[in-house]
Amino acid sequence: MSEFLLRIKCLVDALSTSGDPVLPCEHLDAILEGLPEDYGPIILVIESKFDPLPIHEVEALLLAHESRSQKFVRKKLLESPSINVAQDGSSYNLQTTPFSGPAFQ
After folding, report:
1. Alpha helices, DSSP H only, in 18-86?
2. Cα–Cα distance between 46 and 67 in angstroms, integer?
3. What CA–CA distances, in Å, run from 12 to 29, 41, 79, 89?
């Protein structure tokens, strides 16, 4: 996320330097339009504000969302034990979860 935000900032700065300044709302649109689908909930929060959030606050929200998502994925991976099953010389990896049992039933 930080690399993505830096690339957008570099483009905005380059346009401004060339005499074609980018409005904050255009900067915000460039960021939001470049986000993947899993950022939908945070995009809704950002767009629901009556007054547009400053870019630095949007960046902080996006970085926090990324960090929280990564923690959730790591936690989920730690809670899901793997079972390796060998069959005819092939190995299959079955994921189990506390709620649903084996992923392949």
Report:
1. 24-33, 40-47, 55-79
2. 17
3. 12, 25, 42, 55
Among 64, 23, 14, smallest CA distance to 41 is for: 64
- Mean pLDDT for 19-37 is 94
Distances (CA, A) of 35 to 31, 39, 44, 79, 99: 7, 6, 12, 28, 31
**pLDDT at residue 79, rounded to an integer:** 76
Task: Write the CB contacts of 20 (distance below 8 Å, at least 6 apart in sequence).
Answer: none
Q: Give per-residue pLDDT as tens, 32-87.
A: 999 999 899 999 999 998 888 999 999 999 999 999 888 877 777 777 665 555 55
CA distance 29 to 16: 16
Residue 62's CB is within 10 A of a number of other CB atoms, namely 21
